[in-house]
Design brief:
By secondary structure, the chain is an alpha+beta fold. It contains four helices and ten strands. A hairpin with a 4-residue loop joins strand 6 and strand 7.
């Protein structure tokens, strides 16, 4: 029998089963029944409405008021939103970390410890500053094998062959940016040209703001145009 949504629209698809299409995270109204959806309601970027209700695109499940509160959902939504936005992966602060592609998820990058050859799973953002977790800076939160490496980090970095391979792999994902040669600033203090020759009665004065001479006459006339000496034939 078709199920009518209270306050919703349409009816449940005939023959629907628990295994067909997206699943429902919580038991509501006796089983796989999504909550009602009001046409025109505002949806989140990770939501999509269809005849069955509001679907979480990140988890491929229908929203029921319980699913949205789970930690798994929140983590998947963060990754889903991240995929919708153009990402810039800045080189991590620590030289043994890099944002790399995983063959199973080629559309985005994942933080990886190049020394341990393991992905970081305890960082919830792209901000690696002050990261001291399982594969971060030396701390009691380090994974056991990683901590041993951090305790002997200088020895690892002194091994030119080993550390060279680590840095070559890091440069593969974070190529060094070319340094643009900076242009010298324009000179601020240009030498003042000598005052020009002027007809009798004319005088010159230097203007610091306009970097030019202006001219005045004994009869109090002023001008920016240089008076010309008229030579007698």
């Amino acid at each position: 029998a078709n199920l009518q949504w209270s306050g919703g629209f349409g009816s449940a698809p005939s023959g629907a089963s628990a295994s067909s299409g997206p699943t429902y995270a919580g038991a509501r109204n006796g089983g796989n029944v999504p909550p009602p959806w009001a046409p025109g309601a505002t949806l989140e970027a990770w939501q999509e409405a269809d005849v069955n209700g509001i679907k979480c695109m990140a988890c491929n499940k229908y929203c029921d008021g319980l699913h949205e509160t789970t930690k798994e959902h929140q983590g998947r939504v963060e990754m889903y939103i991240r995929r919708l936005q153009p990402q810039t992966y800045s080189p991590p602060e620590d030289p043994w970390l890099a944002w790399v592609n995983d063959p199973q998820w080629p559309e985005e990058r994942w933080l990886k410890c190049l020394m341990c050859n393991k992905y970081v799973q305890d960082l919830d953002s792209q901000d690696t500053a002050n990261y001291d977790g399982a594969h971060g800076k030396l701390s009691n939160r380090n994974q056991k094998d990683h901590k041993k490496k951090m305790e002997n980090l200088q020895a690892y970095m002194s091994d030119q062959h080993y550390w060279g391979q680590i840095q070559a792999e890091r440069r593969r994902w974070h190529p060094p940016q070319p340094v643009q040669a900076s242009r010298p600033p324009p000179p601020t203090d240009q030498p003042r040209p000598p005052p020009p020759d002027l007809p009798a009665g004319w005088h010159s004065a230097w203007h610091d703001e306009h970097k030019a001479y202006w001219f005045y006459h004994d009869d109090r006339r002023t001008t920016w145009k240089q008076p010309v000496v008229i030579e007698e034939c």
